[in-house]
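Limitations
The structure tokens in this dataset are predictions for the assembled complex, not deposited experimental models. Users should treat interface geometry with appropriate caution, especially where small molecules or nucleic acid strands are included. An illustrative entry is reproduced here so readers can see what is and is not provided.
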Amino acid sequence: MSQIEITNVSVKFEQKNRTIDAVKDVSLKIEDGEIYGIVGLSGAGKSTLVRTINGLQKPTQGTVMVNGVDITKANKKTLAASRKKIGFIFQNFNLINNRTIGQNIAFALSAGGYPEKKQPEKIIELLSMVGLQDRKDNYPGQLSGGQKQRVGIARALANDPDILLCDEATSALDLETAEEIITILKDINERLHITIVFITHQLEVAKNLFDRVAVMENGEIVEQTTAYKLFADPKSNMAKRLVNRFLDEQLPDEVKYRLRDQPGVILTLKYQGDDSLDPVITEISGRTGVSISILQGRIEYIHSNAIGVLAVFITGGQNAISKAVQLFTEKVDMVEEVSR
Amino acid sequence: MKETIQILQENLGQSLWETFEMVLISGVIGIVLGTLIGLILYYYSNRLFSPRPVVNAVVGFIINAIRSLPFLILMVVLIPFAKLLAGDPYTPMGGAVSLTVAAVPFFARIAESAFAEIDQGIIEAARSTGANFWLIFQEVLFPEALPSLIRGIVLTIISLIGYSAMVGTIGAGGIGNLAIQFGYNRYDTGVLISVIVILVIIVQIIQWIGDWLAVHYTRG
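Predicted assembly:
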């Protein structure tokens, strides 16, 4: 049995004149100790879905099993007990503003029934894990965004949870700080063997953090795959959209404008592995007689696996170009002609 | 002038004490009960706790009904009730009854909005720790609402001082009574002006203390 089993879950919100289907018939299984990502645009239903895992949101239909407990049918007491073992990290940190960092964590400890006498020691231990042991007596307003989120993590870990839910935990932070938070989360996952469910609209998070990932669109899961496959071989339209935006395959308009009068085709090539495409280009150029110039190229590493993206401009005779395109299709994972 | 000083010497201490008594009793009960009712209104309207629109509507209606009465009318209507509770309605204790009845719903609305102002995300974070409501009240709702509550307390006390003058005119005593009896009825302008000056000073001091406390409890 998986640690988290979401089965046919739907969430509807009744508004005055209409019903909003925030989550539509979603089924997911998340295994013990993995880092599971849920990606999608904002409004796709990710936040609502993740809240059904700790019962902050009651599903209209379906069941949510966490560690063998049916969260949807749990009574108050069982739900409270389950929540203690499910940490939650928020986009806006949600710390108690008028309480110190130490008191914020003490609150979570008290909620979990941790004896008051032993709390000071545990608070230092938790804050040390996120490198903030000397900020115990500061108020949240005195910390930076990244530091606040680290307090959020320390608070979420207070009751030794086995699951950590992260709702856009890095979206309010700059890239560098987001990386820091991700490193901390990865470390927690490895050292404490805590399952992490991480929802985000930022795909750059996915490439370093996620083991598996689900893509959500309009309340539905449209694709479930591994992090590498999401980038290397996205199947659904939404996944393609997200990945393309991230890999930035779109050529700048300036480049297209510069080439507007020149006959030829622009191709984007995507290939797995970090081998250079130079031999392929030389070979195709030699066999067909076209000339190939490279417009743009980069390599992304997803869990140390490489994905290369290259944009090339091919000029030459009509037939030679067609032949070249066909050869590329045979040798490279994905070939797309860029419309001009 | 001599007469004014004499009147003040004989009556001011007593009047101030009576006003203090009325405001203290009605203020303390009003703030405690008002906070409780405000909390009930908040609890039954927030989707993260226990939304019960019916309870909310009923309590809200009662509060609005009391608040819609002008204080002068409320005071007169409550004379029999004050008699029942305090024995003599024309004493500071009797006056405190109607002041309390006015203060409770007034402060209930202040408390409700002080709680409602708290970021829902903070409540969500508190709920997701599995904490019970009492712990959330102590450690989240109370500290986060405290600055607003303090400002509301200042507002309430200052209003009560004003209303206590009205209670004074029907015989419950207090500094308002002093101003009416000697300043107005006996044309002693000196007494009237003295009372005004004293009231302005008292209200200013309360406002200063309140502002300072509200800032002090708003942390970083």
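Some entries come with short summary sentences. For this one: The interface with chain A takes residues 48, 119, 121-122, 124-132, 135, 139-140, 143-144, 146-147, 217-220 of chain B (CB under 8 Å).
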